[in-house]
Amino acid sequence: MDEQELDTRELDEAQRQEKLQALDAKLAQIQELLQRMENLAQLASRPECTPPRRARLQGEFHRLKGEIDQVADSLWML
Fold it and tell me: Structure pTM?
């Protein structure tokens, strides 16, 4: 294997590592959003949660779902 092939392999490995780090960051972002969604669902399920508050929580839940969709769509661009 010559020096140019070694340089190319090292570059390829560095690019793979960068991509894995970017994917890891995106997955961590999705995990945070899912945790918030779980918290919203728990709040909405409480008996003392009023219908207007439940509607606000549901609105935030759907907004977070949209954010997850955006993050998931961005994974294809990596």
Answer: 0.82
